[in-house]
Structure prediction request, 633 residues.
Amino acid sequence: MSSTTLGTGRIQSAPAKDMVTARALGRRRKFKDNLVRWLCIGATAVGLFFLASIMVTLLWRGLAAMDLTIFTTEFRPTRYGDDSLPKGGLIHAILGSILQVAIGTAIGTPIGLLVGTYLAEYARNSMMGNAVRFVSDILLSAPSILIGLFIYQLVVLPMGGFSGIAGALALAIIVIPVVVRTTEDMLQLIPNTLREAVIGLGAPKWKMITLVCYKAALSGIVTGILLAVARIAGETAPLLLTSFGNNITSFDLSKAMASLPIAIYQQANSGFPDLIAIAWSGALLITVGVLAINIMARVLLRSKI
Amino acid sequence: MQQTLAASAAPSLPTGERRKASSFGDKLFEWLCRGAGILVLLTLGAIIVTLFIGALPAFERYGLPFIWSTEWNPVEDHREAYGGAVAIFGTIVSAILAIVFAVPIAFGIAFYLTELAPSWLKRPVGTAIELLAAVPSIIYGMWGLFVVVPFVQMNIQLTFGEALAALPLIGFIFETTNFAGTSLFTASLVLAIMILPFIAATMRDVFEQVPPVYKESAYGVGATRWEVVSGVVIPYTRISVVGGIMLGLGRALGETMAVTFVIGNANRMPASIFDASTTIASVVAMEFPESLAGSLKQSALFALGFLLFVISFVVLAASRWLLRSRLK
Prediction:
């Protein structure tokens, strides 16, 4: 009996001492965990705050000058605060942007689609395929201004001046790797059993790819194209060196052509409050457009997968 | 017997033709795809070659010292001289500072999105962060110029500038006579905000690839969430995390518009992070459109472009190599 008491006493006293340490240790671990948790919540709040700040600034300043004249008139010089003078707009830049983005997408998409097909269907693990994949990934993140310099040397210099087609070509080079990435990813999601079934019916490989695989991956491929459009719609740096910008509406692809990002860039840096206000409206237009395309792409992809 | 053979042979003829036709179609399509792949390879090659050709006159004129010469004098007389040191320095310093600012916050966001956020919040917050990545860089530039620049001027430089400059040893980094708000520091800040969503999204994707069993075992022996992340998730994903950071660095190095608006575009060696400076991309954007075709200045800008290409190629290639396990 006495030995038991002694035993329990010993057992009780030793853990009691450890419990204090253990509790202190536990408290410290919990405190550290909580601290990191709040820091992470804070970091996320900071990230969301930036997004909110950008959107609020855009809406607040962009809506101030947003009216019908933005969509109906071309560039006008500053009014120096004299409201009797006509107010300028951005229609020349909107049309120029649409034209260059459309041509850039039309050139870049088929090439990107073929490269993505090559990587997913023909060269999955070959040396050549790995090289193409690597280079395409580099192009995806390469500084876009260098693509402007490249097209300047390749197209602008031989043609003797800035041109809309040079701008469209620069945008096309940016489109290609975006479409390659999504096309390859989407084609790789298709189960091989589907391919085997088509080949088993006696169809040639190219028909299997164009009629079955493309159809199965359609929503993903369209998503890629949408993301590419969203990406090039806001590109400024390469256009500065290729299509340069223009103050009037022009559809002549061999001449300098206006674009929304360039018009924003020039008017935002003009120093005149009325032109800066128009630049903010342009910025709002571009951001809303780009984000809307992005959300559309996301919804499209989610509804299919 | 012969009849049946003939009968079976007769319809096989068109099948053979069809097979020939389809094998032609196959060859054609395969070569179309391969040709497009080769075109991509050629594009990168052509970018390197054209940049180098454009840069050749400047390289021939200045040689290797172009990289460390700080002179930039576009006046076309005997004083005309070009060196890339200021732009190269500005590019590297602004990108590294941006990484220093962005990585802790990006890590916090990635940790929050993978371990802490309630599941109903994960998707909307994740989407918001991805949308931040989709905002065009010119918008960051404009927002930076009209929102971040006044903030830095009023709330950072005026409030903390003197105290920071009085610090022993490192005070000179903050000592400046430039109170315009456009500076190397502001550019880094805007760059950091721009690359934040890229790094956060990559880190989140990488964290999500840790096999749940590893994390569950750690939770099972009583580890806290922070212990799981610091003891299991980070060691497991270390290499890919560095790859994601390098990806962000690659973007920061080549960013043009967000920087051009807020860095002040001064081709002088900055003595402090609050001094105006320039980067390769912004000096090209500012000065290239107004330089004469075939001039020495244009060649010097091509030379800077070529150097930027080399720097970002190395960084991006390293990033891709580090991220290769994630890509497979």
Chain A is about 80% helix and 0% strand. Residues 2-64 of chain A form the longest helix (63 residues). Chain A touches chain B through 89 residues (CB under 8 Å). Residues 230 and 290 of chain A are 5 Å apart (CA to CA).
